[in-house]
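**Discrete fold encoding**
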Amino acid sequence: MGSPLESRARLRAILAGDRAVHASSLFDPMSARIADELGIEVGLMGGSVASLAVLGAPDVMVLTLTELAEQTRRVARAGNLCVLVDADHGYGNALNVMRTVEELAAAGASGISIEDTLLPRAYGSADAAQLLPLEEGLGKMKAAVRARGDTGMAIFGRSSAHSVSGVDEAVRRFKAYEEAGVDALFVPGIKKREDLDAISAAVKLPIIAAGAGEKVADAPYLAGRRARIYSTGHEPFAAAVQAMYDTMKAVRDGAGAKELKGIASRELMAKLTRGAEYEAFTQAYLGG
């Protein structure tokens, strides 16, 4: 396992490079270990999958900062890849954002996103997402940059303005967050190339395109728009849920071990759990 400083340095090299690197969705130590085994460079733990993994609850802002920080610690220590964490709204106002940054830096995150969405949902509000006033969002970004200090952890200014208020408002906000000193701009759910084109042309910072739609999720195109990291969704978690559901149902219905499908081999389990290392430790320290 590498140190947080090493993974943060690798992340900064990716942000300063000229490639568009695909980030795998992470949600627990095993998913991080699998990504590491496959040579994946960057993992993204979304607030939604963190809530699902920790609480089995939907993405309605019931996960706490303490729970997110602990899950981040478990994920970050499991491998060597760069772990990006969706810190949502920073769990409160700008002062809460500072605490969030400090806790996630201590937990080993390589980079975190802070967004300007009004969260949690206000009483009586419509289903559609609402944005904070630009001044409040800007205060959160400045607070995050200040709290990051010399840890080397990257801060991403995140906004869904392109889908809420239009691309012109997104440009206005991203330009302000760029001036506030964030390290990259986080654009979630980008579906139209023309929207990304407009954002990319208006700013200078690297871009993270999360949940990129099919028309956008093309590495050469993204690289040409200064998108250095992109993701397409959290399919690994959904696939894991389906696999567990199917297996449990099959066992309940009387299927024998040899009838079950998609079961990891002993060799793969030993590799992912680093069984050989633990066996060596046992021999060296327990006299086994």
Notes: The chain has a mean pLDDT of 96.
